[in-house]
Amino acid sequence: MIQLWMLGLALLAWLPTCESYLKAVEGYAVDSYFKEEVYRAHTWQTFGQLPEPNQAMSETQPDLHLLNAALFFATNELRHRYKKPEFRYSATLRDAAVLHTHEMVSRHFFSHTNSRNRKWDKPDSRIRQCGPLPRALAENIDYQYLEEGDTYLSFARKVVQHLYDSPPHRKNMLGSYTHLGTCSMMEAKDRQGYRYLKSTQDFATY
User: Fold this and answer.
1) What share of the chain is helix, strand, coil (3-state, %, to 5)?
2) What is the pLDDT of residues 56-84, one digit of tens each?
3) Across-strand partners of 93?
4) Most CB atoms within 10 A, among 56, 81, 150, 162?
5) What are the two backbone dihedrals, phi and then psi, of residue 60, each rounded to the nearest 5 degrees?
6) Distance (Å, whole) CA 25 – CA 50
7) Which alpha helices (DSSP H) does 42-188 contain, by range?
8) What is residue 92's three-state secondary structure?
9) Taking the CB of residue 128, how many other CB atoms lie within 10 A of it?
10) What is the C-alpha separation between 123 and 107, in angstroms, rounded?
């Protein structure tokens, strides 16, 4: 029994770290203004005035970092509407959201629990692998289709509205958490003539 337990720990240690995992995610390693700088330079209002978020999304290879930023700022737009303090950006939470979204897309599941990979099985284990573990955390996930004419920002707003329509998800978006990281990714195949995307919002208080 002890030997099996030790073997399990060794296998978990062998699995890739968050950093090495993300290097293999298509679009993540791209040097982009929307990967980091945009969060320091903009509010949801000024982000919405940029030309890039208002351009039509590609149905095959959307800009990962631009889409992540659009979802972040669309969530803060909702917070502003309800007179809540806006979320601060967290690269740790963004990376955990990218990791989980990529796992859901590549391994074909839709759940907060990753039964295909024990190292990334729960939100706290994913965040712990990508950075410091917060005092409190929560996670929203969404499954949404892309409509003709959707821009990065209009799609992000659609995801936020869909989550808002669910009381538990709305509670996370309008609750007392202070930090947020987000990710949306395209499914590999069409479903019923539509292109679907899976999204993750990771919330925390540090």
Assistant:
1) 50, 20, 35
2) 999 888 999 999 999 999 999 999 999 99
3) none
4) 150
5) -115, -45
6) 26
7) 44-48, 64-81, 91-107, 123-130, 152-164, 167-174
8) helix
9) 16
10) 17
